[in-house]
Amino acid sequence: MSLEDVLNWVEPESIEASLARQIDFDRLPTHVAMIMDGNGRWAAQRGLPRVQGHSAGIDSVRDVVESSARLGIPVVTLYAFSVENWKRPQNEIKTLMGLLKKYLRLELRTLLKNNIRFQVIGREDELADDVRQELEFAQEETKADTGMVFNIALNYGGRTEIVDAARRAIQSNVRANELDETRFAEFLYTSGQPDPDLLIRTSGEMRVSNFLLWQIAYAEIWVTETLWPDFRCRHLFEALLAYQKRNRRYGGIARPAIVG
Questions:
Q1: Domains in the chain with CATH codes
Q2: Helix H or strand E encompassing 57
Q3: What gap in Å lies between CA 228 and CA 58, rounded to an integer?
Q4: How far apart are CA 217 and CA 195, in angstroms?
Q5: Could you tell me which residues come within 8 angstroms of residue 104 by beta carbon, excluding any fewer than 6 positions away?
Q6: CA atoms of 260 and 252, how far apart (whole Å)
Q7: Please, are residues 39 and 56 in contact by the beta-carbon 8 Å criterion?
Q8: pLDDT digits (tens, 9 = 90+) for 160-176
């Protein structure tokens, strides 16, 4: 992807175009993870039911996923539903799962058109049969796509993932002296993928909420006050620019955020 490509799909004199001209396309992160927060507050500010915020957030998912693919970001992971979210009211959970199925049905053609591979990370086997069938179908249909990997973290928890990875290592008869960080990472849900270089959180909350705890060890974190339903490619561009201005230390000497 180049600047010229991006300028072909944003308005010529828009804020997006201005931001795009500042991005170094040779220094994009290889993996961007996002905590989609603020749906409920977005709805409350408008006097709407909470579930309306989740519905509005689907447009943000669509925009961010397509924009990321067009930019050429190799991996994007969105935090959709945590293992703790089962504590929410049943009608809200039902709505969230219904929106997920609707998104997959409506957007599958777009994912295929943009060469996006869809994957689920989390305890997929604990989901309802109808939800799991939709997820499995989308993953099967896009498995040959070679462009961006789009992970959706569903029934996911960072601590749960580490426990599951430990269990897989034990089941694989890995000896203690064979287990280092590289080997252990092979048992994570994200096995074979680069760790996130950039973690984005919307709605201004300053916490990681049990998300990719192993993988974000050295990720740059960017927080915006923007609520998720209002998040668009402009905000993604802002996050990328902020990321590219930082020096990544990895516990040692500072070095520029050159990763891709």
A1: 35-156+194-208+218-242 (3.40.1180.10)
A2: helix 50-71
A3: 9
A4: 9
A5: 118, 134, 135, 137, 138
A6: 20
A7: yes
A8: 999 999 999 999 999 99
Structural contact between residues 188 and 165, judged by C-beta atoms closer than 8 angstroms: yes
The residue type at 145: D
On whether the CB atoms of residues 142 and 117 are closer than 8 A, the answer is yes
Residue 255: pLDDT band (50, 70, 90) is low
Backbone angles phi, psi at 32, to 5 degrees: -115, 125
Q: Which residues are catalytic?
A: 37, 85
Kindly calculate the radius of gyration of the chain based on its CA atoms and give it in whole angstroms.
Answer: 18
- pLDDT tens by residue, 196-206: 999 999 999 99
**Residue 51 contacts residue 91 (beta carbons within 8 Å):** yes
Burial class (CB in 10 A: 0-12, 13-18, 19+), 28: buried
Distance CA 223, CA 235 (A): 10
Two structure tokens written together for 204: 């201004």
Residue 9 half-sphere exposure toward CB, CA atoms < 13 A: 14
Helix axes 233-244, 50-71, angle to 10 degrees: 60
If one counts every other C-beta atom within 10 angstroms of the C-beta of residue 213, the result is 15
